[in-house]
Fold this sequence. Notes:
Blueprint: H1 4-16, H2 24-72, H3 79-147
Amino acid sequence: xxxxxxxxxxxxxxxxxxxxxxxxxxxxxxxxxxxxxxxxxxxxxxxxxxxxxxxxxxxxxxxxxxxxxxxxxxxxxxxxxxxxxxxxxxxxxxxxxxxxxxxxxxxxxxxxxxxxxxxxxxxxxxxxxxxxxxxxxxxxxxxxxxxx
Length: 148
């Protein structure tokens, strides 16, 4: 019968030995580049979110203004004004939906991928640190064994 603790340790060993480990300098350089890229993606996502929010506010206020103009004008509006208002009323929801789609499927998705990548890099750093601690522990045990 297999010992569950041994099976867990074997699984952990397989995970730790799965991928090559970066040196400290390589890791720091990679992490710095990743942090810069993450900051850039985060700024782009925030800018896009603001743009979508502004577009939705303009849509709501614009349609409210059109409704108020219709109530205020008891007679027929001039033809160019009516055409412009109808165009705004018809095209603004389409424009807002396109902006929301771009935000969700481009900027938000890219930010999610960058967060996942940062999470993966952090896990790899933990793996590297565990291996370094193991080496130090083995060296310390070797020195302690020599003294005995």
